[in-house]
Amino acid sequence: MEKTLQIKVENLSKFYQMGEVQVKALDDVSFEIYEGEFVVILGPSGSGKSTLLNIMGGMDLPTSGRVLIADEEITKYNDTKLTAYRRDKVGFVFQFYNLMANLTARENVELAAEICKDTMDIDEVMAEVDLSERKNHFPSQMSGGEQQRVAIARAVAKNPLLILCDEPTGALDFKTGILILALLRKINKKLNKTVVVITHNMAVGDMADRVIKMRSGKITEIKVNPEPIPPERIEW
Amino acid sequence: MKKLDLRLLRMIKASKGQFISVVVIIMVALSIFISFSTTAVNMRNGIDYYYEETKLSHIHVQLMRIPQSALDQIESIEGVTDVQGRVTFDVPLKTEDEEEKVRIRIISLPEGGGKVNRLYSDETLDEIAQGNAILIRQFAEARNITPGNIIQPYINGREHSLKVTGVASSSEFVYLMENEQTMMPAPEKFGVVYVTEEFAQSVYGYKGSYNELLIRVKDEDMIDDVSEELEERLDKYGVKRIIKREDQLSHKILSQELMGLDTMAAAIPILFLVVAGIIISIVLSRIVSNDRMSIGVLKALGYGNMDVLFHYLKYALFIGLTGSALGILIGLSLAGVLSELYAMFFEIPLLKVDIQYIYIIYSLILTSLFCIASGLMGARHVLGIMPADSMRPEPPKSGKHIFIEKITFIWSRLSFSWKMVIRNIVRMKRRFVFLVMGLAMAFAINTVPVFMWDSATGMFYIQFGQFQKMDYIIGLAKPMSEDVIYDIKGLMKDGKLEPRIEYPFEIRNGWKKMNASIIGVPRDTKFYEFRNEYDKEVTLPERGIFITEYMAKALNIKKGDHVRVKNFIPGKDDMDFQVKEIIKQYLGANAYMDIEHMRETLTEKNMITGVAASSKEDLKTKLEDAKNISSISSIDDMTKTFEEYIDIMLLSINIMMLFGGVLGFALIYNSTIISIAERRMELAALRVMGFDKKEIFWMLAKENSMITFIAILLGIPVGIGMIQSMADAFNTELYSLPIIITPRTFVMAGLSTILFAAIAQLAALKKIHNINFIDALKSRIS
Q1: Is residue B15 less than 8 Å (CB to CB) from chain A?
Q2: Touching check for A36 and chain B: CB below 8 Å?
């Protein structure tokens, strides 16, 4: 099967000025991601992976270089276009779930969906993340794993091109973490969504189609897994 | 409903107290705006319509005597449309209670009711027959006199019987007051009785002539020109006063009242909206900084800057609209109550209480503007929040050394909790400034009622205890020789008498002029005390004149200037006098002269128009039947009426205090709740370290008391400014408020401010109890 190029990152750099020192968060990074892939970006904290994800998600702008999403150069976008891009093309999943505390699970999902044009059926999505029973609960009434499932539903319901996950298991215990990864993998396969997960957990790399390893703002290795293992078999 | 809106509603529900406190302020602001404005407009409309329906005169002339036949030539003056003559005189009325003194003004009415100053009644008024009378409504109702009753006035020493055949209202007496010296209407003590021309003329000795003219002109712009012309043409008839519509007593008081209403309708709501705006912006900026991460998430989800900003602006707007809706509803119902209250003092039979939709629209626009502006002030930081940054934990607030720390002498002596208090205040500079400003305003509002009280009572007791020490002022039916004093003295057992002339003139300085009385009293008067602008006691000069502060201001006169006194007495010339002193006087605006000098220059030799008396006897009863006496005003009676009036005033003073209090409460309540929410972690840390809830409460209380203290200090000049503008606004020809500001003013206002601040602090107390310190230390989710 011919794979379609979906994300193209070219010579991407991001420098911060911290007082007198220039911090190179990203230093001339280039790679490609194909449609429907499950990609894991691995690296220790401070390696620049969050910055990379933020730029890919249209939440931040690079100092130089380009990011093309489905042939559109998002790094040239102005604020309005970036907002529209985040709205229609990307779904985010954060480490600390970041749900609206005063909205129920279902309402949190609707909050994201109601500003998009071509969304998925909310109840189907809730069923997909196995929260049909808990959908009228507030975040404070839910466990971390449940909250993260709401967050995933929130990202998926928008029917985005890609789902970007920033340490989605970082705040969860091992068992729950595996469940979340399995859910992400299921969505990736079933709905054919590109999923990018950043993590410092090396073990997670085993389940990915493509692994991008980073250190100090540079890519150290890009590995394509011919046979990724199912998340249930990952251990750390 | 949009999920974002749902979130907003739940947010509001979670912080009801804050929401309600601001809504209440806006509600109060708008109910005052709507009720005052609506009432003012309705009264103006009612009055205009009433004046036109009843053909109220544009010019009212009082003169010695004018023959009926001379009216034609007045009618020929350019611009004059109608002229009507009448005979008017004030007489005592016989009452069942011997002690009670009732005076009536008898006014003649031409056949058919005339063309000017027509009476108004819901029922058709029959023609007044000889020996019959129509009573003015306020008086008839106050004394419970109905058609068929007989009233018995004393006219020229003789008792007459008049049968009341009707009750009617007059646009000339919308506000029924005997004269400028009366402070407020007393409808059971003074009334107006309409009789036939023939009756009035014959009993008063005015056969074929009148002592008053009522004139209507084609166009109100012509009033001034026609008045000038009248002055000349009527000179030979002994003009006493030419009263233009704007100077007409009832109309003037009504206009002043309406102007006051306008000022209040504008000033109070603006003040309240400013405070509401301050609170909204403080609350919103707190919510936004608390919601930093949520805002980041919303932006990451694809909500644009404007979507998010509008989300928070809606909070402000929702407060504004809720407050407006309640305020408008309350305002509309209050407008009815207020109109009824005015109807107690002003008789406007054609008054309609209409809803003035334009003020509802103004209210909505005004509140929306205020709320959006303060919302933008509070929520604008939304724009600066980057989704990527907001996910990271917020860096700790920059803790800096503050300048006071450099003064080690003071700083080292402060306790730890005071150090925290001071650092917190300095850390939140902008909020601190806003809070202090708002509280200073609340404090200043509180100074106004205290001042009003001191000033009104001061005005009265200084005027009648210090400036005028007599017990009675007796007016004679007509100017007489001073010998009449001996007659009066003969009727009294003890006491002192002083001759007195009070006569109306026109006083001019260049083109500025004013109709006012000059009062002539002996130079060695025991009853009058004159104090100049610098509160120094001064004695009447042999030559020259004293004028009161209000008149000096109105005519732009300084000490040493000359004024021209235009004399209406036939055969007397106009004279110039030097102003020797500008003197203080709180009730009435007039001038004073040495009685001898006045007789030489302005009036007749040896003449008086009245006497001032001090006596322990009840002169009113004693002199009532005396011939030649037309009026006896007792300072004692005036004091009683004044004290009744003071009771009404007390109510409005309490209401104002409450207003100031509500503002202070809302400010402190909101800021304390915000302080607690903002510093949950800090406070929780203190709890973990072993501080108990009481100690934390006291720490916040210390912060609030420091803010309150500074606000009160700053509020003092603001209060003085407010008092000054209040005094200016209330300065009229009839009375001026003395600026009496004592430490008591500020102590009282301060106490009230502190009281409400303390209540607010206590109301916020339970939020401290609600801090679960373990949760607070862990939580990162808003």
Answers
A1: no
A2: no
pLDDT in tens, B529-540: 999 888 899 999
- With 60 as the cut, is the pLDDT of residue B222 above it? yes
Question: For residue B353, what are its two tokens?
Answer: 């209480």
pLDDT (tens digit per residue) in B389-403: 777 666 656 666 777
Helix, strand or coil for residue A161?
Answer: coil
- Which band of pLDDT confidence, cut at 50, 70 and 90, is reported for residue B239? confident
Alpha carbon distance B131, B128 (integer Å): 8
Classify residue B708 by burial, with Cβ atoms within 10 Å: 0-12, 13-18, 19+. Answer: buried
| Interface membership of B299 toward A (CB under 8 Å) | yes
pLDDT, tens digit (0-9, with 9 covering 90-100), for B733-766: 667 778 888 898 999 999 999 998 899 988 887 7
Interchain CB contact of B605 with A (< 8 Å): no
Between CA B259 and CA B266 the distance in angstroms is 11
Domain A5-231, classified CATH 3.40.50.300, yes or no: yes
User: Do the chains contact at A100 and B387, CB–CB below 8 Å?
Assistant: no
Instruction: Residue B272: name the closest of B261, B264, B260, B283 by CA.
Output: B264
Express each pLDDT in A149-173 by its tens digit. 999 999 999 999 999 999 999 888 9
Three-state DSSP class for A213? strand
CB atoms within 10 A of CB B551: 24
Pair of tokens at residue B388: 């990527």
* B387/A contact by beta carbon, under 8 A: yes
Q: What is the DSSP string of B720-735?
A: HHHHHHHHHHH--SSB
Q: Check CB contact under 8 Å for A103 and B304.
A: no
Q: Of B301, B315, B390, B781, which to mutate for an interface test with A (greatest number of A Cβ within 10 Å)?
A: B301
In this structure, are residues B12 and B309 in contact, taking their beta carbons and an 8 Å threshold? no
Task: Say whether residue B304 is in contact with chain A using an 8 A CB cutoff.
Answer: yes
Tens of pLDDT, residues B117-157: 999 998 888 888 888 999 999 999 999 999 999 999 988 87
Q: What is the pLDDT of residue B581?
A: 92
Element (H, E) at B74: helix B71-75
pLDDT band at B637 (very low <50, low <70, confident <90, very high): confident
Tell me which chain A residues have a C-beta less than 8 angstroms from the C-beta of B294: 98, 100-101
B6 neighbourhood in chain A, CB within 8 Å: 103, 107
Any bridge partners for residue B88, and if so which? B107
Which pLDDT score is estimated for B781? Answer: 41
With contact defined as beta carbons under 8 Å apart, do B608 and B480 qualify? yes
| Per-residue confidence (pLDDT) for residue B346, from 0 to 100 | 87
Helix (H) or strand (E) holding B288: helix B249-290
Closest chain A C-alpha to B776 CA, distance in angstroms: 14
B253 contacts: CB under 8 Å, gap ≥ 6: B175, B177, B734
Is residue B577 within 8 Å of B544, Cβ to Cβ?
A: yes
**Number of Cβ pairs closer than 8 Å across A and B?**
83
